[in-house]
Amino acid sequence: MAVHAAQLDTTRVLVVGDDAGTAEARVRELRRQGYFARSVDTGAEALSAHQQSDLVLLDLDLPDIDGLEVCRSIREAGDKPIISVTARNTELDRVLALQAGADDCVVTSCGTREMLARIEAVLRRARPRPDEPGTLCLGPLRIDSGTREIRLHGRPVNLTAKEFELLHTLAATPGSVISRKELMARVWETTWADSSRTIDTHVRSLRAKLGANSWIITVRGVGYRMGHG
Q: What is the CATH number of the domain that holds 52?
């Protein structure tokens, strides 16, 4: 099963489960499909590591913290996609997982092809749709084009008008590199040649306000693209 080119080396999957053999097998397969995958084996580690991931594959049978509580805590932190994994294939278990915040629920015995298909489906639903009005969601970052509000991990981020427009322009096409010239035309509505200082200043300010340089990636000699925090 092929992964979309835009996902290659960019989509970070956190595999959570205390069965080392199963977790390692899932990580190997995810990496083979082009995802950046890593695993942790406790709920405490999951709560610490999930912010550096784009999707969490969460086994609910954990040795230290109830898996549903871990799921609930990750969901409260933002809109990151979560797929819960449980050995108990009952309607009640699936309902409890979904109510705790999971986007999908699969059984431990789920085959590799089905697991990959479910991951792709959940990521597809989570991708921003720039052609539709509303909110762009990139992991914990929410950009509301209607109210012009930015929230990161649920907390508001105060931006200037141009900072908002620059961020929204980059986030509307995640994974795509936008040239400096095009950014000047879209955000500042000018083709002014000496644009480097203006754009660099705004990018520097955005990175500081978002708390990580990795939110906006510099592509040397070309321009910028949206990254991950």
A: 3.40.50.2300
